[in-house]
Design goal:
Layout: H1 5-20, H2 37-43
């Protein structure tokens, strides 16, 4: 079965792009977003709701 030259070229170019792609040695953790005062007030329990 003959080799498609365009498919071979595409595979070589893709392999070269992957090899030359920049990569981080270790994944960096995503920063935790600080809550604003409005969000903190919204998440606080209101008196009387805990006994429902």
């Amino acid at each position: 079965m003959p080799i498609d030259p365009y498919a071979a070229l595409h595979a070589l170019l893709r392999a070269e792009a992957v090899r030359n792609a920049p990569h981080a040695p270790h994944p960096t953790p995503t920063p935790v977003k600080a809550q604003t005062e409005d969000e903190e007030a919204h998440h606080q329990e209101k008196p009387g709701q805990a006994d429902r």
